[in-house]
Amino acid sequence: MYLILIALMLVSWGIQWRLRSKFKQYAQVGLKANLTGAQIAEHMLADHGITDVRIISTDGQLTDHYNPTDKTVNLSEGVYAERSAAAAAIAAHECGHAVQHATAYSMLQFRSAMVPGLSAVSKWMPWVLLAGVFMISRSLIPLGVGIALFSLTTLFSFITLPVEFDASRRALAWMDKRGVVTVEEHAMAKDALWWAAMTYVVAAISSLATLLYYVSIFMSGNRRN
Fold first, then answer.
1. Which residues pair with 58 in a beta bridge?
2. Of 142, 104, 144, 149, which is closest to residue 125 (Cα–Cα)?
3. Partner of 143 at 20 to 30 A CA spacing, among 8, 83, 133, 223?
4. Helix ranges (DSSP H) in the chain
5. Which residues form a coiled coil (predicted)?
6. Is the distance from CB of 212 to CB of 1 less than 8 angstroms?
7. Could you tell me the CA-to-CA distances from 45 to 75, 79, 186, 191, 203 in Å, in that order?
C-alpha cells in the first residue's frame, strides 16, 4: 500500500508538471480570433443567456475557478488578459461551470451541496484518523468514524470528475460553434484541458487508495481484537 501511495504521488507530480508545461507552451500560441480570456468568457456567458455572472481577475497561476456562491468566473491574471489558446481553453472551461450552474446540472448541484459539510469535516478528520490509529488496540470506534468522514472526501473527489469533464466538453463545443478557435487551436485547447482533468483523476484515485489504507488498518485491528 505504501508503494502504491508513493507511486500515485509521483504520478500526480508528473501530471502537474506536464500540465504546467502544456499551458506554458500553448500560452505562447496567439489566438487568431485575437480575444483575451476575459473576452472569451464574456462571449460564452452571453451566448448562453447568462447575465448575472461577473468575470474577475485573480492573483496566481492556474488559480482559475468558478464560484457558484457569488456567481463569479475567476480568471488568473495571465488568463484574464492573454490572447492565447491556453487562455481561451481555461476561460471557456470555467464558463462551462457557470453554464452548469445556470442549467441546474445535477452533479454540480450535488457537489455544491457537499461543500459546507466537507469544510467542517476537513478540520477534524485528520485528528480523528490519527486518534483512531493510536487507539486501535483499545477501540475501533474512533478509526471507524475517521474512515466514515474520509469516505465523504473520497466521494467528493469522484463526483468532481464528471463535473470537470462536462465543463470541458461544453467549453470545446462552444468554441467550435462560435468559431473562436481554429482546428489547430482546438486541438491545443483539448489537450490542455485533458491534462487538467487528469489532475482530478489522480486526486480521486489517490483519495481512494488512502481510504483503502485506513480500511486495511481497521480490518487488521478488528482481527486482533
1. 76
2. 149
3. 8
4. 2-26, 37-47, 77-81, 85-102, 106-134, 141-178, 183-224
5. none
6. yes
7. 14, 16, 19, 23, 29
The pLDDT, as a whole number, for residue 94 is: 97
Q: State yes or no: is 94 an active-site residue.
A: yes
How does strand 72-76 pair with strand 54-58? parallel
What is the pLDDT, as a whole number, of residue 108? Answer: 94
Q: Could you give the strand order of the β-sheet that contains 65-67, starting from the edge strand earlier in sequence? A: 54-58, 72-76, 65-67
Q: Distance between CA atoms of 49 and 71, rounded to whole angstroms?
A: 14
Collect the ranges in the chain with pLDDT lower than 50. none
3-state secondary structure of 74: strand
Catalytic residue among 77, 82, 94, 184: 94
102-137 pLDDT tens trace: 999 999 999 999 998 898 888 889 899 999 888 888
DSSP 8-state assignment for residue 109: H
DSSP letter, residue 103: T
In the structure grid, which three cell numbers stand for residue 6, read together? 508513493
What 72-80 contacts at long range (C-beta under 8 Å, 24+ apart), as own/partner pairs, is: 73/41, 73/45, 73/97, 73/98, 75/37, 75/38, 75/41, 78/27, 79/37, 80/36, 80/37, 80/38, 80/55
The terminus-to-terminus CA distance of the chain in angstroms comes to 22
